[in-house]
Amino acid sequence: MSRADNPGPSGRGTGRRKSAGRRRGPELTATRITVLVLIALAIILIAENTEDIEIRLVVPVVTMPLYLALLLMFLIGGLAGALALRLRNR
User: Fold this and answer.
1) What is the model's pLDDT at position 57?
2) Is residue 65 in some structural domain?
3) Number of other residues whose CB lies within 10 A of the CB of residue 49
4) Is the pLDDT reported for residue 5 higher than 60?
């Protein structure tokens, strides 16, 4: 690619090359790394706890694998956090 391929305001080339359509990926910030580590820890915790447990839901008693109960609480917590963030930004 020559300078003439990317002319500047004066009509002459600027010497800068055009990007070949590449986009930079998302930056790995400390916050994103922390979130990824917490998600990995949650997945490990869920995977390590597979025995059946009894959970009392106000009146009924439900028997289910512990990993399903943990996964359910993880999802409910994520939804509650997303809702709180959305309401805070209004």
Assistant:
1) 82
2) yes
3) 14
4) no
